[in-house]
Design brief:
- This protein is an alpha/beta fold and 270 residues long.
- It has eight helices and seven strands, in the order H-H-E-H-E-E-E-H-E-H-E-H-E-H-H.
- Among the domains are: 53 residues; 133 residues, Rossmann fold, CATH 3.40.50.620.
- The strands form two sheets. It has a five-stranded parallel β-sheet, with helices on both faces. Strands 3-4 form a two-stranded antiparallel sheet.
- Helix 5 crosses helix 6 and helix 7 packs antiparallel against helix 8.
- The chain is elongated.
Length: 270
Amino acid sequence: MFGLIAFQPFPQESDEQKNLINPINSALFKNYKNRIHPIHSILRTSVMNKNRMRKKYKTIIGLTLLLLIGTLFLTGEKILLAIGNFLVIKDDLQPADVIHVIAGGDYRTDYAIKLYQQGYGKQIFFTGGWCQRHNFFHGQHGKELAAKQGIPISAIAIDDSEVKSTYSEVVRLKEYIAQNQMRIRSVIVVSDPHHMWRARWTYKNVIDGSISIQMAPVPFGLSPFQRSWWTDTLSRRMVREEYMKILYYYARYQFSWGPLETWLTSLDKE
């Protein structure tokens, strides 16, 4: 038979032994703890500072966005008006030899007739050629409207040669000036308000500089377009397309040659 084995309990450690064995209570760990505590404090302070800076930046960004939104809300309409008004050129009119009506709606003809009746022109000159949309020749149609409103036939001139663009119509005017027995020294141009910047640029580049060019846009109240162009579908399209056509005109008539010019010529319109 096996005998019982007696287990003796572990002897209790003295306080001195605990200090030697247990590092938590040792002077060495206390010294280490005292040295690591400042580093921990520095790291914690750094994190707190970063959080404060992050909140500060978020506040600054938020206030900046609110300021921008408020500025756009208060000045947005002015900016939009400026975008449209840049295209509108209206001169203080002086009597001219010829009033040139760029092909378009009848309201252009009506305004040119009004200017003639007020003594601003000796002749009205119509261009535009065949209009497939309305199934008539612009020049002949304008002549008929003017005659019906009492303009003498002798004061009406037309050129219904084919044209593809505003530029082409100004070339027709140049030819008319060269062939006319009356010496023409000044021209008033009638078209839509937002068309006038591109029209003036074209006249200045085609017509001799000795001839005075005056821009007379049809007033907004007499045309289908709105000064607050962004509120109206037709006006929005007009303004957008005019800026695109200005870029096209610069490329087409000033900076193109060879194959590029041929390709751009195929895009000529209005």
